[in-house]
Design brief:
Its main location: membrane. It is a multi-pass membrane protein. The chain crosses the membrane at residues 7-29, 71-90, 102-122. The protein is mainly alpha-helical. The protein has a domain at 33-121. The chain has helices at 2-27, 36-43, 45-54, 66-92, 98-121. The radius of gyration is 18 Å and the shape is flat. The two termini are 25 Å apart.
């Protein structure tokens, strides 16, 4: 029980640092386009979750749901790459500054990493 509580506290702290970096990248440089990264990283785990629930193969057909799971992983990968590439594109077009880009990318990766860590640490084992 204590290890679970310590894990929740540590992951919450990392998540708060990630949100702080993204919010500071918007507030310090007076350009709120960097907040789009938060939307992409919050939405990124949803395709994996939805496709994993849709692909529930029976015991008789083991290979039936792999295409749906692969599609969910593809969309998640696209959103994660978009979360990194969007600040780079905005900095290249001179819509945001380079330090704002760096803070936004680091904060976004912390947010996404924390979301994935929450799901991995607290995933329920399914028994037949």
């Amino acid at each position: 029980m204590a290890a679970g509580l310590k894990t929740i506290i540590a992951l919450s702290f990392v998540l708060a640092i990630g949100f702080l970096l993204v919010i500071l990248s918007a507030a310090l440089f007076h350009n709120f386009l960097t907040l789009l990264v938060v939307a992409t990283y919050v939405v990124a785990p949803l395709p994996n979750f939805i496709c994993a629930k849709c692909a529930n193969p029976d015991d008789f057909m083991g290979d039936a749901g792999y295409a749906v799971v692969d599609f969910g992983r593809f969309v998640t990968g696209f959103l994660v790459v978009m979360g990194i590439a969007l600040p780079v594109l905005l900095a290249h077009c001179a819509l945001i500054q380079v330090p704002a880009m760096a803070m936004s990318i680091i904060g976004g990766l912390l947010i996404y990493g924390t979301i994935i860590s929450f799901t991995q640490f607290f995933k329920e084992e399914q028994d037949f």
